[in-house]
Design goal:
This protein has one domain (about 15-85). About 30% of the residues lie in helices and about 10% in strands. It has helices at about 40-50, 65-70, 75-85, and strands at about 15-20, 35, 60.
Length: about 100
């Protein structure tokens, strides 16, 4: 048996964990390092519909360390997305401000 704890159906529960690696968004619409198990919340799904780039900043647990490293590296996709997300502003209802 592997070092990972196995469930009754033979899958690792950590396989379904995703982490938002981007910055905390304006008005705390989405907080940095938010963790999602068993899928994304309707709130986050709605945000991704408004800002599709946001979906690229939600990664599987086993990719978090490498993705966070790339955020700090100028010229990478992750770094550019992080800078873009910092610039987005939301109104008091959580809607993207035009």
């Amino acid at each position: 048996m592997s070092a990972k704890k196995q469930t009754a159906i033979g899958t690792d529960p950590r396989d379904d964990v995703k982490v938002y690696i981007g910055p905390t968004l304006h008005r705390r619409v989405l907080v940095a390092s938010s963790v999602f198990r068993g899928g994304l919340s309707p709130h986050v799904t709605g945000l991704i519909e408004k800002i599709p780039e946001l979906g690229q900043m939600i990664v599987p647990l086993d990719e978090v360390v490498e993705a966070k490293r790339r955020i700090k590296e100028p010229g990478t996709t992750e770094h550019g997305l992080c800078q873009y997300l910092i610039s987005i502003r939301f109104n008091e209802n959580g809607e993207v401000r035009e």
